[in-house]
Amino acid sequence: MSQGKIVLMACGSFxxxxxxxxxxxxxxxxxxxxxxxxxxxxxxxxxxxDAYGKKDLVAANHRxxxxxxxxxxxxxxxxxxxxxxxxxxxxxxxxxxxxQNTINTANNTDPPIWLPDDILNVKIEDQNSNHxxxxxxxxxxxxxxxxxxxxxxxxxxxxxxxxxxxxxGRHGIVVVSRAGSDPGRFIYESDMLYKYxxxxxxxxxxxxxxxSSTVLRRLxxxxxxxxxxxxxxxxxxxxxxxxxxSKANVxx
Length: 252
Ligand SMILES: Nc1ncnc2c1ncn2[C@@H]1O[C@H](COP(=O)(O)OP(=O)(O)OP(=O)(O)O)[C@@H](O)[C@H]1O
Ligand SMILES: O=C(O)c1ccc[n+]([C@@H]2O[C@H](COP(=O)([O-])O)[C@@H](O)[C@H]2O)c1
What we know:
alpha/beta, EC 2.7.7.18, pyridine nucleotide biosynthesis, globular, 6 strands, 37% helix, six-stranded parallel β-sheet, binds adenosine-5'-triphosphate, binds nicotinate mononucleotide, EC 2.7.7.1, single chain, nucleotide-binding, nicotinamide-nucleotide adenylyltransferase activity
C-alpha cells in the first residue's frame, strides 16, 4: 500500500556524524521503494539544540558544519538548522510538524523535489498549520531512527503520550535495526506501538555496522585513527577544532 510522498527526518545529536547516520537513509529509501510503500522525495538531518544538554554535545555550529561535510556527496539528504535556531530544545513532534508544514506550504510540485536550504529556516509563525493530512499530494514527514531511539519511547517521563500518538498516528516512523535490538518484539510489547503498527516501517539492516558517535569520540580523544568510520573531512574538522579532546596535529 503506497503512502504517497515521504520525507525521512532523522533527529539526534550527531556529535559527531558517523557513516551510519547517513547510511540509514539509503537503507530505508531502498526498502520503501522496493516494497512500493511510498516515494521518498527527500531526507532531513535535524540536529538537536545545544540545550538538550547531552554529554559530549559540541556546539550546534560545529555539528552542522560536520553534517554538511558528510553530506557533500548526497543529492537528496539535507541538514536542517531549524531546531538549533530555536530558543531551547524542541520536541520531535513539533519539529516534524514544522518541517512537514514548511515543505507542504512551499512545495506542491511533482517528485523528485527538494527544497532550497533557506526554506528550512523559515520562522514557525509563518507556517500554515492546516497542511497536515490536507492535500493528498502533500508530503508526509516520517521519523527515521535506529531501534535504540524506538526503545527510548518506553523510558518513563521522556516522551509524552500525546506526542507519540501524533508521531505514530499522523506521521509514522521508519526504524532501522541495530545489533542487539528486537524492534518487532518491542512493538508487540507496547500497546501504543502495537496500536499504530501499520505506521511503523521496520527495516532490517543486513550489513550490520555498529559505528556510533560514542565510538568515534573515544578514538578521537585517544588520538587513534577514526578513518573509514566517518567522512575524512569530518575527522579533519574535529581535529582542526580540537573537538572531543582531540589534538590538531594528528593526521590519521
Ligand atoms: N549504527 C547504527 N545503526 C542504526 N541506527 C543508528 C546507528 N547509529 C545511530 N543510529 C541512529 O541515528 C539517530 C541519531 O543518533 P545519535 O545522534 O544518538 O547517534 P549515536 O551514534 O547513537 O550517538 P551516541 O553514541 O552519542 O549516543 C538515532 O535514531 C540512532 O538510533
Ligand atoms: O520529543 C520528545 O519528547 C523527545 C524525547 C527524547 C528525545 N527526543 C529526541 O531524540 C533525539 C535523541 O538523540 P540522542 O542523541 O540522545 O539519541 C533528539 O533529537 C531529541 O530531541 C525527543
